[in-house]
Amino acid sequence: MKSTIQQLSIVSGKGGTGKTSIAASFAKLSSKRILVDCDVDASNLHIVMHPEILEEIPFVGQKKAIISQDRCRGCGDCVIYCRFNAIKDFYVVDPLLCEGCAVCAMMCPYEAVDMVDHLSGTIAVARADSQPFLFAKMGIAESNSGKLVDEIRQRAMKIAQAEGYNLIIIDGPPGIGCPVIASITGTTHVLIVTEPTISGMHDLERIIEVTQHFKIPTSVCINKCDISESNTQAIHSLCNAYGVEVIGKIPLDTDFVKAQIAGKTIIEFSNGKASKAIQSLWTKIENKLI
Length: 290
Known about the structure:
The chain is an alpha/beta fold and 290 residues long. 38% of the residues lie in helices and 27% in strands. The protein has two domains: 6-59 and 122-289, Rossmann fold (3-Layer(aba) Sandwich), CATH 3.40.50.300; 61-119, Alpha-Beta Plaits (2-Layer Sandwich), CATH 3.30.70. Helix 5 (145-163) packs parallel to helix 6 and helix 7 (198-213) packs parallel to helix 8.
């Protein structure tokens, strides 16, 4: 049976296009939604949403090796087979260098190596504007952010089913890597936010190829559309070539910066040209999700 819960994922291909500002604005414009910040390596949506954290859940991203000093006989096999130079003097594992591959545990003749859960971050279950908001705090230099994105989305889906929400808005990470794929897989629609720059167009094409690979309906919004008319036209041509609709254009507006300084979304801060463009964009996105 097809789920009636709509999931909108907002991604960008590259950082700095205004994706998070648009996601936050959509959250303010939607009457009933769950908001999820899947940019777990650099979560910042909470800065303008001012959530009340209800629960923090430990996230175990992987297992790492610990050598038992009682069982270890100092044979040195673990040092020989470790390709990450993670085992130091006196056969102590450096957790910053250990990649959790478990080769040392498999090769130890004395079974002195244990693979134990490693805390990689936390999931914050919160409320913003009296509605569910989930985000994460990934530890420094920790891995498996794609797994963390998947776990946050699963928790959001359970809340949606339990509390009768039919829309989940996902603020995805930049790029095209594992966290991005985890943010868009199985969603109803993907909105790509780009900008009329050379790097913006390059990374837009890459993320379009990703969404088309997974056969996810996709639209494009051009932020700061008036900084380069020629590049904006080039984006239109690129999207036409891929059969992707440019659903909105947002002009350059200093109200974005002023709103961030005030700790607000641009929708709350002003009713200027950018704010009106986002409101129009949201109306079009709503029609895509029906």
